[in-house]
Specification:
The protein has 13 helices and 24 strands. It has 531 residues and is an alpha/beta fold.
Length: 531
């Protein structure tokens, strides 16, 4: 396959011009090839905004060697067109069906792949299916009445269901797992653009339907889903898993299990404690906490795109700053045209996240601005020290906001005072908000780091540090605060238990979690034979 990169088109150019440019580069007529877009990005670095394409070429008559011999262009190259495949199955018989705990992207893709390959997995999920979950979450946004088992963190699709649905990842993709994940999303309802956009996203509205479609496909392949079902205990003998206990309909039940995938998500704090009490090997790890900041979408778009701002999708950004105190401050989970979401999962605590719909047409754009914290910042409590650090911040946020999302003008955050009103920017939230002193949530080293970071970002995006920018808190669920250790076979110290995904500390977003789910599928399938 021939690939051409760095083909630029003006924003207003007709896409038909792409074929003409390919023809000119290769020195052949347009009827001698077909092409497929494999990547599209926006280049706005020099004020002259362009789409930049990479395309794969399928020749109709001429040979690739002929083209490569006659074209002297560093942006024209041969590429591998292979797709993801796995066909190395084991021969050990399973005594019981594999069980997956959690139906976020890690658990969902692991379950889908196991089902597709004939393993008939059982997927248990403490929250509700996505349709009932949406009703429960919408009720929470309106009334503040929290369901601690089904909420923004727990339920079908995982925490990513109520997010921007970003699909970009830094995971290296030599085996094409990433491509397979994106193609699967498209197969079950996502736009084909996610395969080639440089910053792909689905949006919470579309992602809900895609998740449901993947679940239904897995069921057709032989999977079983049990919602409102929470893992409560593992039964092991001589270091090997034999069964598990779970709660459903307020009843404790048990099932035999020798193969268990722990795709529990980064907020399953009670499950972390149960595992810790059972001496499952876990270690605290670094993560990040901070605030959400809102600006007008128009301001961000104009800064990124200039005069073309109203001809392009809502703009995203990525900002980082390494401070003299050896802390890193950076934007995270940026939501163009999005909302601040009350993403709490425990009573008496407030956590926030960002969420966008597929159109990204909200009046504000928001992002987390977070500061790195390390295990030495939250000593004590062993593997669960990071969990308790998060909880402490969330309790303060709840108290400051009287159970609502506390918000504050950035100028007042700097001055450590409660805001009395808003400027030009009005909060755009899912869940009630109230004016409060967000700064009181944090240890001073975090507050100072956030201020230095935002002030420096004002030199990169004009107006970013404006005093009427809206701050809300607390952004505490950026990633898992611990890692559930696993060996080269992907198993924990209790054999048969496979830690998986973001909650176990092996992923950092929807796509990387899905990829890790595929890796765990491969680890299981390479040992055991299908039913």
């Amino acid at each position: 396959m021939i690939r051409i990169t760095q083909i630029k088109l003006k924003i207003d150019d007709d896409l038909k011009l792409l074929s003409k440019k390919i023809s000119k580069i290769l020195g052949i007529s347009e009827n001698e090839f077909t092409y497929k877009v494999v990547r599209r990005s926006i280049d706005a670095r020099k004020g002259d905004v362009n789409y930049v394409y990479s395309v794969d070429i399928l020749l109709k008559n001429k040979k690739e060697s002929f083209i490569m011999k006659n074209v002297n262009n560093k942006n024209v190259m041969l590429t591998n067109s292979e797709k993801y495949k796995f066909d190395t199955f084991g021969n050990i018989k399973m005594n019981s069906r594999p069980v997956i705990v959690g139906s976020g992207p890690a658990g969902l893709f692991c379950g889908y792949m196991l089902a597709k390959s004939g393993y008939k997995p059982i997927i248990i999920e403490r929250g509700e299916d996505v349709d009932h979950r949406r009703e429960t979450v919408d009720k929470f946004f309106k009334t503040g009445k929290l369901n601690t088992e089904s909420n923004v963190q727990f339920g079908e699709g995982g925490a990513g269901t109520f997010s921007d649905g970003k699909l970009n990842t830094l995971v290296k993709d030599r085996l094409k797992r990433n491509t397979f994940v994106l193609e699967t999303f498209v197969k079950y309802g996502a736009s084909e653009e996610i395969i080639y956009d440089s910053k792909p996203h689905i949006g919470t509205d579309v992602l809900s339907e895609v998740v449901k479609n993947i679940r239904n496909a897995a069921i057709e392949y032989g999977a079983e889903f049990r919602f409102n079902t929470k893992l409560t205990h593992l039964i092991e003998k001589n270091g090997k898993l034999e069964a598990l206990e779970y709660e459903t309909n307020n009843m404790q039940e048990q099932m035999p299990c020798e193969t268990l995938v722990l795709a529990i998500g980064h907020s399953s704090r009670d499950t972390f404690k149960m595992l810790n009490d059972m001496d499952v090997y876990m270690t605290p790890k670094a993560f990040a906490v901070g605030i959400r900041i809102e600006h007008s979408r128009e301001m961000i778009d104009k800064d990124q795109y200039g005069a073309y701002y109203n001809k392009l999708p809502a703009a995203s950004y990525k900002l980082t700053k390494n401070l003299e105190n050896n802390r890193g401050v950076y934007s995270f989970c940026m939501c163009p045209g999005g909302y601040i979401v009350n993403s709490s999962s425990e009573e008496g605590m407030i956590a926030v996240n960002g969420m966008s719909y597929s159109k990204r047409d909200g009046s504000n754009s928001n992002s987390a601005i977070i500061c790195t914290v390390k295990p030495e910042d939250f000593k004590g409590q062993g593997a669960l020290a990071g969990v308790e650090f998060q909880r402490e911040l969330e309790r303060k946020a709840y108290k400051i906001g009287n159970g609502m999302i506390p918000v504050q003008l950035y100028g007042d955050f700097k001055e450590n005072r409660i805001s009395t009103g808003f400027g030009e920017i009005i909060p755009q939230t899912k869940g009630e908000y109230i004016l409060g002193n967000v700064r009181e949530i944090f240890p001073e080293f975090i507050s100072q780091s956030i201020i230095r970071g935002i002030d420096s970002f004002g030199h990169k995006i004009k107006g970013y540090d404006r005093e009427d920018s809206i701050i809300s808190g607390v952004e505490s669920r950026t990633s898992s605060p611990l890692r559930i250790e696993r060996d080269e076979s992907f198993q924990s110290n209790i054999k048969g238990v496979y830690p998986c995904g973001e909650g176990a500390g092996y992923a950092g977003g929807i796509t990387s979690a899905a990829i890790d789910g595929i890796k765990v599928f491969e680890a299981i399938a390479s040992v055991y034979e299908p039913f």
